[in-house]
Specification:
The complex is a heterodimer of chains A (168) and B (148). With 168 residues, chain A is an alpha+beta fold. Helices cover 35% and strands 33% of the residues of chain A. Chain A has one domain. Chain A has 4 helices and 6 strands; from the N terminus they run H-E-E-E-E-E-E-H-H-H. In chain A, strands 1-2-3-4-5-6 form a 6-stranded antiparallel β-sheet. In chain A, helix 2 crosses helix 3. The longest helix of chain A is centred in the C-terminal third of the chain and has 22 residues. The N and C termini of chain A lie far apart (45 Å). Chain B is built from 3 helices and 7 strands; from the N terminus they run αβββββββαα. Chain B starts with a helix and ends in a 5-residue tail after the last helix. In chain B, 32% of the residues lie in helices and 32% in strands. In chain B, a hairpin with a 3-residue loop joins strand 4 and strand 5. In chain B, strands 1, 2, 3, 4, 5, 6 and 7 form a 7-stranded antiparallel β-sheet that branches. Classes of the chains: A alpha+beta (168), B alpha+beta (148).
Chain lengths: 168, 148
């Protein structure tokens, strides 16, 4: 039984981390350091790598466009998506030029974008909401997006959002 | 002399080099990129170790006295392509002076996190011990001197 388990585990690890030339199992990559899924990688002719970083909660999705240039990591844009039925709709976007990627900066920007969106919607509907309440709601939503996929109480059903964001 | 297969990977398939050439430093068993020197005179370069399954990139900054570890990136293979699987960086108030042991342990943690995520997405279960041992083994494989 132990031998069988060992063989199964070996196959499992081989599919996740194959040797050069062998295909990898098609499963999204969770980067726990950056608290996001990494997808849509590509490398330019100049050898610069770009990828999308996706994080989400049950209400919003955040898509980062990240660029690797020599030893530096840049944030190229942040997009915020909200649900509309089964679809994801772009609700906020910010582009950056030569801005180093920094976790604190990304989080602050994401929070501000949520605040801007909520403030705009409230104003459109002529609803008066205290700024503190909007800030608190934004903070709660963003904190939800930074929950680690590896946490035991992470709602794994949320990963169904991933294909929707990849295809947006 | 470096293992021929790994040498082939090193010369053709190392990802995200931004056009920099690499040279092999046998004493440290590491590939070093050309690097870039800032206006302040600090040099930034990559130190790369690899095995036939994993590539570990250390982003280093050479200051006046110290070598700083600015980041670690892990890449795995998917056929002939390389996929980024983990990235972590330090700097500003949270700086790290480069230390082989610290870099190794961080790499192991990062790889372990990646593997755990993959297993969870597949609904598979492997014991904590086996997961940790496998991650450590993979990183140590990249540090092994590859002799022909």
């Amino acid at each position: 039984m132990a031998t069988l388990t060992k063989a199964i585990n070996k196959n499992l690890f081989d599919s996740i981390l194959p040797s050069s030339g062998n295909p990898r199992v098609h499963i999204p990559v969770w980067d726990d350091s950056q608290k996001m899924f990494i997808c849509d990688e590509y490398e330019s002719g100049n050898g610069h790598r770009y990828y999308l970083g996706i994080r989400f909660c049950d209400r919003i999705g955040i898509v980062e466009k990240v660029g690797l240039y020599h030893s530096w990591t840049y944030i190229d844009s942040i997009e915020l998506y909200a649900f509309n039925g089964q679809k994801m709709e772009l609700i906020q976007k910010r582009d950056y030029d030569k801005v180093f990627r920094n976790e604190e900066f990304i989080r602050q920007e994401s929070e501000q974008m949520v605040k801007d969106y909520l403030t705009g919607v409230m104003k459109t509907q002529r609803i008066c909401t205290p700024a503190e309440q909007i800030a608190e709601q934004a903070q709660t939503l963003i904190s939800g997006c930074y929950k680690s996929f590896l946490d035991p109480d992470y709602n794994t059903r949320l990963t169904q959002i991933l294909p929707k964001l990849e295809q947006r | 002399m470096m293992n021929t297969a790994l040498q082939a990977i090193a010369t053709k398939a190392l990802p995200a080099l931004s056009g920099e050439q690499v040279t092999y430093n046998a004493a440290k068993n590491v590939f070093l990129s050309q690097g870039y020197t800032s206006a302040a005179g600090n040099m930034y370069y990559k130190a790369i170790r690899l095995s036939n399954r994993l590539m570990v990139y250390y982003d280093l900054g050479q200051g006046y006295i110290h070598t700083f570890l600015n980041g670690i990136k892990l890449y795995c293979f998917d056929g002939q392509k390389a996929n980024l699987i983990a990235q972590k960086y330090w700097g500003d108030c949270d700086y790290r002076i480069f230390n082989e042991q610290f870099a190794k342990e961080q790499s192991i943690l990062m790889l372990r996190g990646f593997l755990e995520g993959q297993l969870r997405l597949q609904g598979a279960h492997v014991s904590e011990q086996e997961l940790s041992n496998f991650a450590r083994g993979m990183i140590e494989e990249t540090q092994r001197k590859q002799l022909a």
